[in-house]
Batch of 2 targets.
Target 1
Amino acid sequence: MASKTAGGQLEDRWRDILSAHARTMCEIDRALHPHGLGASDFEVLDMLAAAAPEEGEQCRVQNLVGRVHLSQSALSRLIARLEKDGLVTRSVCMEDRRGVWVALTAKGRDLHAEVLPLQRAALARTLGA
Amino acid sequence: MASKTAGGQLEDRWRDILSAHARTMCEIDRALHPHGLGASDFEVLDMLAAAAPEEGEQCRVQNLVGRVHLSQSALSRLIARLEKDGLVTRSVCMEDRRGVWVALTAKGRDLHAEVLPLQRAALARTLGA
DNA sequence: CCGTACTGCATGCACGGTCATTGAAACCCC
DNA sequence: GGGGTTTCAATGACCGTGCATGCAGTACGG
């Protein structure tokens, strides 16, 4: 019975994660959608905002792929959308001309600052106090 | 500073959930895909298998919607796929002819039994011991 | 009874995601 | 330095999801 309990505990933990993930993700989406952003969009914006400001808040795409929970292709499209909306700019990296730099625009920085408290509030709402 | 820490803790917790969710989901998908199933498919199969066997392992769709982390429309399509693959059968509910019963077929029951240990193993791998 | 509101599931549509592939650039090693 | 391999990012094809809607069937109120 001990083994059955262990399996059940894992199963329970997994259900908890699934539930927390779904509820929080949905809540963030609802909070951010009025501003034209989804949860993934914010995740990227947040990383760029957190990226070394001494480097002009820019970041190589390759650098983001590892940190974000998205495939490389999804990230590429997401950045394209952000660029189209004027929130970030892309520019080729001069050292390695395969790479591209992604940088927040002023508009992107403002929007991030605007929605950050909303995301925090959503987290607080669904993840408890 | 206390409030800043609180915000950071929430943020960390969220990142942990995101990470665990992504890794586990991916692992389950990889384990189940060779058998023609995704993580959501298994979730539904598992619920049907757990559903009161005295009722013939059947369940109303309405009953599943609340338990599964899927919209009603996604669930409807998912069940349609499972039915096409011969894993479940749909039949109208005689008491309330709007509702439909979903029941595991023998094939569905077998497949569930076959992949259950794989899912458990994936959970164990990514969720620790 | 008949009409209105409501509920349960299916469907049209658009969006965002992954996988596989491509193209360009760097690397390497002879 | 030219040919094979690897790396970075973008693109095409396809799939699953959510939202809004449609369509049966039910419940209620006159």
Target 2
Amino acid sequence: MCSETVISKGITAKQLQIVRAAYDLFKENGFYATGVDLIMRRAQVSKRTMYSYFVTKNQLILAVLGHYRNNCQDEINQILQRPELSSQDKILAVFENAEKWFVDTKFHGCLAVNAMAEFAGKDEAIEQACHQFKVWELDVLRSLCTELGVQNSAKLAYKLLILLEGMGAIAQFVKQPCLIDIKQLVLQVMDSHTMEQN
Amino acid sequence: MCSETVISKGITAKQLQIVRAAYDLFKENGFYATGVDLIMRRAQVSKRTMYSYFVTKNQLILAVLGHYRNNCQDEINQILQRPELSSQDKILAVFENAEKWFVDTKFHGCLAVNAMAEFAGKDEAIEQACHQFKVWELDVLRSLCTELGVQNSAKLAYKLLILLEGMGAIAQFVKQPCLIDIKQLVLQVMDSHTMEQN
DNA sequence: ATAAAAATAAACCGATCGGTTTACTTTTGC
DNA sequence: GCAAAAGTAAACCGATCGGTTTATTTTTAT
């Protein structure tokens, strides 16, 4: 274990290989429905290796949720770092980015939401990871709203999160370019906070 | 099978007993995670009886989704039938009713959304039942929006569904009286359709 | 070159999965 | 009152579940 090449964030190549395969399978087929045998086959890794890195399936699920969160954070950070964008444009860019996810025919909802639905009340660590993911999402939106200079950034962020989650939930059912102009809806909700007190 | 007392909508008492137990378990623990043995124990019914009514577990799941839909439809119909409410008040009442669901600590998301996440691409009939549930929800909102006399009732209904789904998704994570005034948010989205073209 | 570390394939484990079958009892209609 | 229908309990089925073990091979560091 001494000299394995560490790829990033303390994850070795083999671990990443397993997590990626598990991530794809969980995303497509859900957590309970995906057996460990299928994961190891997809990852092209022996079961023993798998269990040397992840003591239980649920700990692998935790790692996958961490991987998912890292992916999302990288995407969002790239938006936040674009200096040419105003705070308002960054918020719109966050929604545009989310739409890229939603239009994928393989999109079956936010992984954290699905994990919460399957493990709420059954695995505290997973529950907490899902909760933390949403806290992070809300934090991103809130700090952007604060930059906007609106009266109550926390409340506006909460409203935007409702829009984001709502779009994600519906996206699983309606597979087509969104019926409405999301950008306009987001702007409208933002506008109400720059004009009146909320 | 000739003379069994039919309770409602072609469902016998025994069937309802099974569906109710399965409904509670699926709602709390998810579909894959809930085994048939647990369902029959909870329903106080032998496995043979269970399988005489529902040929497979997935057909039981279909029946449970139908039961869920009937429950929701009954609640919504009670709102729609209140003559003292304006169309706008009825829309607000729909959201108020949804909040009653959301604040329940046992609420783990819309059953149709969860079923879609677990069975999308795996069981066409279940997938379709979930889809039809959302179509019904959208239809209720659209007919109310049409009554409102707004310019584009379909688009407003879609926006309201986004709000409804978003609230539901978040409700699993944030267990507390909602941070924002939902009624105000709904009114705001509706107002934009009565004033401008959309 | 060699020994430790890390990987593999595959047999194996008890438990549970969805589902069937057998043998028996209760309820019901006529 | 009696036969058919509908119910029960429980053994049983092959498959799969999450997880372990064994025996062997490959990789890697010195």
